[in-house]
């Protein structure tokens, strides 16, 4: 990187945040797992056992009229899960981004959660859909364009959670923010991949151990996932090198 911003700085920032907010990260991680189980997994489990058409669909896989209705139900369920996931993820992302500057409290997460409205959730979902479509188009163009698009627009989701910007504004600001640093972002993520890959490979032959390690690694990965975005926005936007987004732009 240039202008005093290095990959080492990003790693140090992530380690400091992990040390400062270790227990709070763990608490937020458990809260999100709990919410996802109660509001997403549990309804499907109950539907599986209480409604025979759903159970029969998963067991037999046949396409009778009743199972076509089940497919419609599953589609609506998927939309519902996207809404729930977005609703609980937006305040979690904002929580983590703010955690680089101070020791956080659970109250911040729930206060932010109260402020989320359905319009913001749907804008966030639209951004996710656009981002996925962009990456898929890139992957169809011999993979490398997909990776490049991910480097350009990868911070758009963090920007939307952080500033409540529209999907287009989030994508545009991500492109601006990552300009000049995409090679460094790629190198940073490659280093993370190299670090965490051996840990994942160790547990491949044991599902229980694999699940435990996946949970632990996912938890420890939290600050590293957001650190580069935080450092870049501090470097460019808060030092007025470039103009940052304004809160609530929904055009």
| Overall pLDDT confidence | 87
> What is the number of helices?
10
Compressed to H and E, one letter per element, the order equals HHHHHHHHHH
Which blocks of ≥5 consecutive residues have pLDDT under 50? none
Taken as a percent bin, the fraction of beta residues is: under 5%
Can you tell me the overall shape? globular
Based on CA atoms alone, the radius of gyration comes out at 20 Å
How many β strands by DSSP? 0
Main sheet summary: none
Structural class: mainly alpha
Helix content range: over 70%
Please summarize what this structure is.
This protein is mainly α and about 250 residues long.
What layout of secondary structure does this protein have?
Blueprint lengths: L6 H44 L1 H9 L4 H34 L7 H10 L2 H23 L3 H10 L2 H8 L3 H12 L3 H21 L4 H30 L15
Report what the structure shows.
The protein has 251 residues and is mainly α. It is 80% helix and 0% strand. The chain has ten helices and no strands. It has helices at 7-50, 52-60, 65-98, 106-115, 118-140, 144-153, 156-163, 167-178, 182-202, 207-236. It is globular. The mean pLDDT is 87.
Entry keywords:
single chain; 251 residues; mainly alpha; globular
């Amino acid at each position: 990187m240039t202008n005093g911003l290095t990959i080492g700085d990003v790693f140090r920032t992530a380690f400091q945040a992990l040390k400062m907010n270790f227990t709070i990260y763990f608490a937020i991680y458990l809260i999100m797992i709990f919410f996802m189980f109660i509001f997403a997994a549990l309804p499907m489990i109950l539907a599986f056992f209480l409604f025979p058409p759903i159970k029969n669909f998963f067991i037999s896989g046949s396409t009778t009229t009743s199972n076509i209705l089940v497919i419609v139900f599953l589609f609506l369920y998927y939309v519902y899960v996207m809404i729930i996931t977005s609703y609980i993820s937006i305040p979690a992302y904002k929580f983590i981004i703010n955690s680089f500057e101070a020791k956080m409290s659970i109250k911040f997460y729930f206060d932010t959660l109260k402020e989320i409205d359905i319009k913001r959730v749907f804008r966030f979902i639209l951004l996710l859909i656009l981002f996925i479509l962009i990456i898929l188009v890139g992957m169809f163009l011999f993979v490398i364009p997909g990776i490049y698009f991910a480097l350009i627009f990868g911070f758009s989701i963090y920007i939307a959670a952080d500033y409540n910007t529209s999907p287009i504004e989030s994508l545009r600001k991500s492109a601006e923010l990552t300009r000049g640093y995409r090679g460094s972002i790629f190198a940073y993520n490659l280093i993370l991949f190299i670090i965490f890959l051996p840990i994942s490979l160790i547990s491949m032959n044991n599902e229980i151990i694999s699940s435990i390690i996946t949970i632990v690694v996912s938890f420890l990965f939290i600050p590293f996932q957001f650190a580069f975005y935080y450092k870049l926005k501090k470097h460019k936007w808060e030092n007025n090198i470039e103009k940052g987004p304004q809160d609530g732009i929904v055009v």
